Amino acid sequence: MQRSERLIRDQSKPNAREVLQELVRRVERLRPDHRYPHRFHEEKSEIAYEMAELSRTVA
Questions:
Q1: Distance (Å, rounded) from C-alpha 45 to C-alpha 51?
Q2: Which one of 29, 44, 46, 57 counts the least CB within 10 Å of its CB?
Q3: Full domain range(s) for residue 16
Q4: Model-level pTM?
């Protein structure tokens, strides 16, 4: 479980700013890995999922 996902689940009212900042850091670090090419796509999918979850909690 990623840190941003824990922030979403652990708090009754998540601090959207902190979650977004963590997601931004993860996107900035996201790079293809030639040894494990699937890892890039898995991380990208996890980030997209967490952003969608965040949008549901903020809306």
A1: 10
A2: 29
A3: 3-58
A4: 0.71
